[in-house]
Write a structure and sequence with these properties.
alpha+beta; 42% helix; two-stranded antiparallel ribbon
């Protein structure tokens, strides 16, 4: 039955089903990894410089990064399932594409807002960043521009818990995503000054 259903689909629908099901599987895996505390996200533009004149264009709405693999998957998830489920209700293909794209964008916005709330709740816990962050180690989550020319993000371990903070560096080169870092000092209640661990000499 499934074979005959699949054979009856057009090439476009087969591609749409394949991409949507793949996005759904990735979304499930990301969700599981997130809840068990693993890093299920990646910088979608790791090797692309999104800054201009010291302004980091990847930081949207207080540092929430739009260009991530997670958001790409969320958009495909909303767009694909909307196309599939609404194809019989919306007969106009252009209108169907527009509606599906809006639903995909709305899903991305909703997930970004949810993660921003969760991050705020996490950072507003009982950890005093100024007292606890210095010396903590972690990794760069979003590329940190050189010479304090902009802020990126890091994930550091404080009191046994992984936390995410804005970060700047005095390094002469940008600290790329995945770079191991150590907190040198705090800049404010939500921003830390970091250096690459490998830059320390013993």
């Amino acid at each position: 039955m499934i074979a005959s259903w699949w054979a009856g689909l057009s090439l476009v629908m087969k591609i749409l089903w394949g991409v949507t099901l793949t996005a759904s599987l990735v979304f499930i895996i990301q969700s599981i990894l997130t809840f068990i505390g693993a890093d299920a996200d990646a910088d979608f533009d790791t090797d692309v410089d999104l800054s201009m004149d010291g302004t980091d264009l990847s930081n949207i709405d207080g540092g929430s990064n739009l260009y991530t693999f997670r958001n790409f998957v969320n958009f495909i998830l909303g767009f694909g399932w909307s196309m599939i489920l609404l194809q019989d209700s919306i007969t106009s293909i252009p209108l169907l594409v527009i509606v599906s794209a809006l639903i995909g964008a709305a899903l991305v916005a909703a997930v970004m807002y949810l993660f921003k709330l969760l991050a705020g709740m996490q950072q507003s816990g009982n950890i005093n960043l100024q007292k606890s962050a210095a010396g903590c180690e972690g990794k760069v989550y979003l590329t940190i521009p050189e010479n304090r020319s902009g802020a990126g993000k890091v994930q550091i371990t404080i009191n046994g818990a992984v936390r995410e903070y804005d970060a700047v560096t005095e390094n002469d080169e940008p600290l790329k995503t995945g770079t191991s870092i150590r907190v040198v000092d705090t800049v404010d209640a939500s921003t830390v000054l970091v250096e690459e661990i490998n830059s320390y000499t013993v």
